[in-house]
Design a protein that fits this description.
binds glutamine, single chain, 8 helices, 6-stranded mixed sheet, alpha/beta, Rossmann fold
C-alpha cells in the first residue's frame, strides 16, 4: 500500500513540476501611485491567465527608491495616474529605473504601459498647467496636456503588422495629455471610436520592440484577452524560445462581451 502512495505522490510531483517548468517574472511599476480606473486588473489578468496554464509567476513591486535587475524581468507593467501622481514619481523613475529599463526594452523586455505610465515612457509630458515631467525616452513619443480632457469609451483596430492579425480592442480613456508619435515607434492601431493618442491623427498607442504604450484603461487585459495572451506569449518566447504548446483558454464569454461592446460603440457613433 505504501508503495502505491509513494507512486501516486511521485506522479503528483512530476505533474506539478512539468506544469511549472515555465516561470515568468512580472514587475509592477509604482503600484501605489499609478493605478487608476482599475489598471491593477492588468496584473491580475496576466497572473491568472498564467496560472490557468500552469505557468508560475513571480511579482515584484517597484516603488520609489527600489532597485531592480531589469535583465531578470519578463514583463513590466506601468499603470496610469493623475498629473500629481506622475509628478511624485517621475524623477525617481527617470533616475532609478530609466537607464536599465531602457536597455531592457531595447533588449526586448515585454512591457505594457497605460496612459500616465505610457506618457512617462516617452520623452516628456508637459502638463496643462505648464509643468514639464521628464520621461525616460524609451518610446519616441512626447505628450502635451490640453485644457479639454479626452474622455470616453474607445474602440481601436490593431495594426496587423504588430500582431500578425488585426483585432479590435475596447477600453476607456480619460486624459488631458495629447501624445504625438515620432518615427521610432509605430501606432498600436487606429481609432474606430474615441479620441486616441491626441484626438487629431486617428492613431492610438505606440509600439516599440515588445513594448506597448496606450491610453486604454478598462482594465485593458481582462477585456481584451487577445492582447493579454500576446504579451504572455512574447515573454515566454523571449525566455524559452519555442512555445509551441502554449495552451489556448476558453475565452468565449470575454470575446462575446468584447464583441457586444464593439457593436454598441460603433452603433452609438453612427
Ligand atoms: N495625468 C495624465 C493625463 O491626464 C494621465 C491620465 C491617466 O493616466 N488616465 O493625461
Amino acid at each position: 500500500m505504501w508503495d502505491n502512495v509513494g507512486y501516486i505522490w511521485d506522479s503528483v510531483c512530476k505533474f506539478e513540476s512539468n506544469r511549472m517548468t515555465w516561470q515568468l517574472r512580472l514587475a509592477h511599476l509604482y503600484p501605489d501611485h499609478m493605478n487608476i480606473y482599475g489598471d491593477r486588473g492588468n496584473m491580475i489578468a496576466l497572473q491568472q491567465r498564467c496560472r490557468w496554464r500552469g505557468i508560475a509567476c513571480e511579482v515584484v513591486s517597484v516603488g520609489p527608491g527600489a532597485s531592480v535587475d531589469w535583465s531578470a524581468m519578463d514583463i513590466a507593467f506601468f499603470g496610469g495616474g493623475q498629473d500629481s501622481g506622475q509628478a511624485l514619481i517621475a524623477e525617481d523613475f527617470l533616475e532609478r529605473q530609466g537607464p536599465a529599463l531602457c536597455a531592457a526594452i531595447n533588449d526586448g523586455l515585454v512591457m505594457l504601459a497605460i496612459c500616465g505610465g505610457y506618457q512617462l515612457l516617452g520623452h516628456y509630458f508637459l502638463t496643462h498647467t505648464g509643468q514639464r515631467l521628464p520621461g525616460i525616452g524609451a518610446l519616441d513619443v512626447y505628450t502635451v496636456g490640453g485644457k479639454e480632457r479626452l474622455i470616453g469609451n474607445i474602440v481601436v483596430e490593431t495594426d496587423a503588422a504588430v500582431f500578425g492579425e488585426s483585432f479590435r480592442l475596447i477600453g476607456f480613456e480619460n486624459h488631458s495629455g495629447r501624445t504625438y508619435l515620432g518615427a521610432g515607434v509605430r501606432p498600436l492601431g487606429r481609432v474606430l471610436v474615441g479620441r486616441g493618442n491626441n484626438g487629431e491623427d486617428g492613431t492610438e498607442g505606440a509600439v516599440y520592440h515588445n513594448t506597448i504604450g496606450c491610453y486604454l484603461h478598462g482594465s485593458l487585459l481582462p477585456k481584451n484577452p487577445q492582447l493579454a495572451d500576446h504579451l504572455i506569449r512574447m515573454a515566454l518566447r523571449r525566455r524559452y524560445g519555442d512555445v509551441g504548446d502554449f495552451a489556448p483558454l476558453d475565452d468565449t464569454l470575454e470575446l462575446r462581451a468584447q464583441q457586444v461592446m464593439v457593436e454598441r460603440m460603433l452603433r452609438v457613433k453612427r
